[in-house]
Amino acid sequence: MTVNPNDHLISLIWKYGVYDLTEIERENILLPIIKEQIRNALINPHIRSYYEKVSMNPEDISSLADVPWVPVTMFKEFDLATVPADDIVKILRSSGTTGQQTSKIPLDKITIQNQNRSLSKILAHYLGPKRLIFIVIDHPEINDPAHEFSARTAGVRGLSLYARKTIYLLKKEGDYLTVNPEALEEIRQLDRGIPVYLFGFTWIIWSVCIPYFKKHDIHLHLSGGTLFHGGGWKNLQNIAVGKDFFTMNIRDFFGIPSYRVLDFYGMAEQTGIIFPDCECGYKHVPACAKIIIRNIQTLKPCGEGERGLIEVMSILPNSYYGQALLTEDTGRIIGWDGCPCGRRGVFFEFLNRVERAEIRGCGDTFRVDHGR
Question: Where is the Acyl-protein synthetase LuxE domain (predicted)?
Fold first, then answer.
């Protein structure tokens, strides 16, 4: 089994607090860790080929912005594992549209441990130190070990680490999801105002729960609840459902206060890191990560307020190259170390997915020449 040489450094990162690092402190702390991780990642022939073709030596990297990024689409085409095959215990598959090729993210025990620790720290920051009742707005089979390990599965399992009891609100009827009346009744019997937390994918909540609640005139009283939801905004935007209207419906049908309906940004390729809304509606970066917004045309870092592609950097992955991933999502930096909520570091806003986004030419850069 591979030993993580940076384990003590990754453990120390949380002593600073989840959102206590300024951007200067983040740069100084994360850069040496990521450089060491890159040295280890060069065991992968595709990563090694990539670094050779862009003429980059890890020793020459002087800032986090200089770390060569990998488009997330490369996980659909290449094996980016950076540990021996025997160390891989799970393959996480992204949730793609029917017919699309999905990403494959190899996970070893070290990476899973890092991801779980990160999620626990982020959840504790928003929910407090006590374990709470966890309401999953999905069906229980999503967590069945016999099923494929998907992004939805990873989300449920990761957030369930904080639970003292789990209730699955939905069930499967054939190929469809619907509300489980027994689970609904169990939730109704909870004491009003009891602290609970909920998790679900935005599109599932909107397309399954809200119509059912409307049809049956159901209004829960989860005034002590906190909902973490993400994904599926493109589908909602196609039917003209915005963030405020979604939140209003959650407040009306679930009884959750608007300020505790937390849209989060996250991705399968960076499991372990979620970016929930703060009280001001912005997203903050935990100590183990960094966000860079890159100009869509030049791919150079954007300034404050400029729209660009979101790059997510992380020190959590040990079993694959996830230190710098360029997404197909756009966002903009709102400010640096000055959010009224009090959290330090950069705070940003997710805008949308780039239509038919494709970083051209990267596949050729990754391919090994095989003696040519």
Answer: 17-366
| Per-residue model confidence as pLDDT tens digits over 203-259 | 889 889 999 999 999 999 999 999 998 876 566 555 556 778 889 999 999 999 999
**pLDDT mean across residues, the chain:** 85
- Tokens (6 digits) for 242: 């915005």
**pLDDT in the model for residue 160:** 81
Residue type at 340 in one-letter notation: P
Residues 334, 235, single domain; the answer is: no
- Contact between 138 and 168 under an 8 Å Cβ cutoff? The reply is yes
Question: Is 203 in contact with 232 (CB distance < 8 Å)?
Answer: yes
The parent domain of residue 192 ranges over: 130-277
Q: Using an 8 Å Cβ cutoff, are 295 and 306 in contact?
A: yes
Do the domain assignments include residue 299? yes
Residue 353: is it exposed, middle or buried by C-beta count within 10 angstroms (0-12/13-18/19+)?
middle
Establish if 98 belongs to a structural domain: no
Q: Residues 50, 187: one domain?
A: no
Check whether residue 59 and residue 137 sit in a common domain.
no
pLDDT(365) > 50 = no
Residues 258, 157 within the same domain: yes
The Cα–Cα gap between 339 and 33 comes to: 27
Torsion of CA 31, 33, 39, 44, to 10 degrees: -110
Q: pLDDT at residue 138 above 80? A: yes
Would you say how long the chain is, in residues? 372
Do residues 257 and 251 touch, judged by C-beta distance below 8 A? yes
Name the DSSP class of 280: T
Q: Please, which residues have CB within 8 angstroms of residue 19's CB and are 6 or more apart in sequence?
A: 125, 284, 285, 286, 287, 343, 344, 345
**3 state SS of 371:** coil
Mean pLDDT along residues 305-324:
95
pLDDT > 70? residue 44 = yes
Q: Burial code of 261-292, b = ≥16 C-beta within 10 A, e = fewer? A: bbbbbbbbbbbbbbbbbbeeebbbbbbbbbbb
